[in-house]
Amino acid sequence: MTTDFIAPDGKPRCQWTSVTPDFVPYHDNEWGFPVDDDIRLFEKVCLESFQSGLSWRTILNKRDNFRAAFDGFDFNKIATYDRKDIKRLLTDTGIVRHQGKIEAVINNAKCAQALVAEAGSLAAFFWRFEPTTPATEEPLTASTSPESIALAKQLKKMGWKFVGPTTCYAFMQAMGLINDHSHTCITRARVAAARQQFEKPT
Fold it and tell me: Is residue 56 flagged as an active site residue?
């Protein structure tokens, strides 16, 4: 069973928040709460892709820089990026300067446009992969799931890049498709309540 981290306020949080104080507000106010905004969903896919091989602490610390560099992750704008934009991004010291990942964001922006045309919204598509049965494992012990494997497979089929099953699982955790807060974490009940009130996009 996961051992919780007791934060400075004396209340238990998921163990991963112990890494840095910056994680606590992100954990308490964002992680696991359901999201149906296409821009936020696209941003998270991109940031999770950038995280591959790195720590989430690095990406979270640079998140505002990423947003400034990528036009707030408006995929309709990013889809128009050209070689000049790639060169600009590769010289931006505020972000992770990985050419493959930068080019993947541009590629995925075009894929996102096609997906919206087909499914109506990114939210409608992503929420199709919400698990229909509760996880049997203690939260945070898994790194993939049948749903994340299926999501990654479908995205790759549609041409998306840097979207493997582990990346998709982390995306699903963060965007509220699953509630992976530990069972004694103080935020788990708030996330559960938010998920109950959430209207699943169609």
Answer: yes
- Residue among 16, 26, 30, 130 flagged as catalytic: 26
Q: Does 183 count as an annotated binding residue? A: no
**Could you say which DSSP state residue 59 is in?**
H
Catalytic residue among 31, 43, 56, 147: 56
Fold observed for domain 5-197? Endonuclease III; domain 1 (1.10.340)
Is 98 annotated among the ligand-binding residues?
no
In three-state secondary structure terms, 107 is helix
In sequence order, what are the residues at sequence separation of 6 or more whose Cβ sits closer than 8 angstroms to the Cβ of residue 148? 129, 165, 166, 168, 169, 171, 172
| pTM for the model | 0.94
26 annotated active-site: yes
pLDDT digits (tens, 9 = 90+) for 133-189: 765 555 555 789 999 999 999 999 999 999 999 999 999 999 999 999 999 999 999
111 labelled ligand-binding: no
